[in-house]
Every structure is written in C-alpha cells, then in structure tokens.
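Service request form, structural biology core

Requester: graduate student, group of Dr. S.
Request type: structure prediction, single chain
Budget code: on file
Notes: please return the result as structure tokens.

Sequence provided:
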Amino acid sequence: MTIKAQEARLWQKVKKNLTGFHLTRIESSTINGIPDIHAANKDHVFWIELKSDEANYPKLNKWQIVWINKYVKAGGKVIILDETLSKKLLKLYRPVSGFTDPRSLVSFASFSFPLQWPRIRETILQELVNCAA
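Core staff response, request fulfilled:
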C-alpha cells in the first residue's frame, strides 16, 4: 500500500473517531506544505498533519517544515499524527518552536493498536490546553 493510501486510511479513522471537532480535509496543490486537516471545536483551532509510514519520526518534507515553522511562529498550533503500521503505534507531536530536522521532534503521547480514540481525543485536548496556558 502506498504512503498516500495509508494516509487516506488514517484520515478515514480520524474522521470517524476523533469526535467533538469540526474537521476539514485539505488537499491543496496551490499551497505547498499546508497540513492535511483543519480542526476546530468551541475552544481550539489547530491543524493536523497525517503521517503513515515505517519511519521512527514524522517524515515531513521541506515545504511542510517551512509551513509549520511559520504557523507556529505566528502563534498557531499543529498536531502531527504519525502512524507506524509495522509497530502498531500512533505517536502525537506538537512542534512548539522552529525546527529543521523532523527527527528532533519529541512526541507528547504514544498509543498502541487497537487505538482508543476517546483517549487520543482527550490527550489532544489536554495538550492544546497546556499550550494555551
């Protein structure tokens, strides 16, 4: 299965299970690096970048790194959902400052399969609250 197909499957899981958010999938060929999903609820607005591959870190391309760095510098929030299928693991990352190498990012949470989406949702919400404080 291609990485694009794996990320499409991850999007279907997120759309079905990450309840309580208004989620909009963005597929842009005009803005390089924009994350995959715009997310909002009554308290938070943020972007979600989906990754599904075999790397031990989120494999972001140079345009994604630039976009995320600019958005975070402007006060925005980005959550990276990084699924490693062979390890049956989903890691969550939130870049908080400029970075050039995605291998330097540290996950704030990790979940084993089968995924417990209510727990993932609460962990994301708590991280968003923590970064607002």
